[in-house]
Amino acid sequence: MEADGEQLSARPALETEGLRVLHATVGSLLATYGWYILFSCIVLYVVIQKLSTRLRALRQRQLEQAEAAVEPDVVVKRQEALAAARLRMQEELNAQVEKHREKLRQLEEERRRQKIGMWDSMQEGKSYRGNARKPQEDNAPEPSTSSVIPKRKSDKKPLRGGGYNPLTGEGSGTCSWRPGRRGPSGG
What we know:
The chain is mostly helical. The chain is 72% helix and 0% strand. The longest helix is centred in the first third of the chain and has 69 residues, at 2-70.
């Protein structure tokens, strides 16, 4: 029995000694390289998170491709919808083109009528300008004869100043005299 007692008392001493050695080595390791270990764990965690999201996206894409390959009905429906939308857009475009052509035809017909009217008035000896203005005046209400509305001048700015005369040689024209080059003459 005494042998058993010595073994029990010796065992805790060995265990405590082992714990002390373990504590000293781990403590010195953490004291020396602790911050490096911490930053490495953080970087490793971030890298694992990024890779896991990319792997999930890759798996999702593969599943979608597999579903698309398995379900040709979905592809056919999608293509039919696309073709119907294109056809609808083409019909709208054709309708707009037809409206534009009709408007051009009406304008051309109106011009032709005006030309015929001018020709007729010239044959009768009347002024063709007076007849050309009458249809426009019919649409607008006629002003009273007592109050004459003067025509407004256009608000356009003149291209050059009012005192510009190209015959005087003044101003910044392109035909101005320039002195020759300095330096020895060639030859």
